[in-house]
Specification:
Layout lengths: L6 H19 L2 E3 L5 E3 L5 H4 L10 E3 L10 E3 L4 E5 L13 H20 L15 H20 L3 H4 L17 H28 L4
Antiparallel strand pairs: 1-2, 3-5, 4-5
Helix pairs in contact: 1-4, 1-6, 3-4, 3-6
């Protein structure tokens, strides 16, 4: 049984993920007022669109990292622009592809560090070079995180360091705070992705 305090957070997570996937993949999305709004599926060109110079994005590993990046994170033929601390300042503008890859990785790794082997790193997580595969990877990560949450009891919610995800404050935070944080990550990056889709559609009157 899901811990009662967790129920509204899981419902919020489900709603945010459903809206984001609809916004990216179509054929319709929830407009927020209960109406279904038609939306086209994201193309590979849109997925990799760089609206300003010197964006961080996902790139073929053979091409090397982008401007101000020092490495390509992830596994496979593609990687996501990254840099060791201290990060570049001001922060580079990140593409839709970068933001979606970040979300999918975060969900998959946090699921592993909550209810899996507690071993996955960024070097293990594949980076996808096309839109359809990236959306599917986000859905897989979201499903894994949701499954991990459903096995949580009330005591675990108050346990500091219950999630051992190594790229955040997880080892120092009660688990319920991490659940909240993951929700806001999906909500705010989802909003950014939606805005980038709108900007791509409206560019130069197209």
């Amino acid at each position: 049984m899901t811990a009662p305090r967790l129920v509204p957070l899981v419902e919020q997570f489900d709603f945010a993920c459903e809206r984001l996937v609809g916004r990216m993949a179509g054929p319709v999305m929830d407009s927020g007022d209960g109406c279904a709004t038609a939306v086209g599926a994201m193309s590979d060109e849109e997925y990799l669109w760089e609206p300003v110079p010197d964006c961080w994005s996902v790139r073929r590993r053979a091409d090397g990292p982008g401007p101000r990046a020092t490495l390509l994170a992830g596994a496979g033929d593609w990687g996501r622009d990254a840099a060791s601390y201290p990060h570049p300042w001001p922060p580079p503008f990140t593409t839709l592809a970068w933001r979606l890859s970040h979300l999918g990785e975060m969900l998959a790794l946090r699921a592993d560090h909550t209810a899996g082997g507690h071993v996955l790193t960024r070097d293990d997580h594949p980076v996808r070079g096309d839109a359809a595969a990236a959306v599917a990877a986000f859905e897989e990560g979201a499903a894994a995180w949701r499954k991990a949450l459903l096995g949580i009891d009330d005591a675990a919610l108050d346990t500091i360091g219950y999630c051992t995800y190594p790229h955040g404050s997880d080892p120092e935070e009660p688990f319920i705070d991490i659940v909240w944080w993951v929700n806001q990550e999906v909500l705010h990056h989802g909003a950014e992705i939606a805005l980038l889709r709108d900007l791509y559609r409206a560019r130069r009157g197209k």
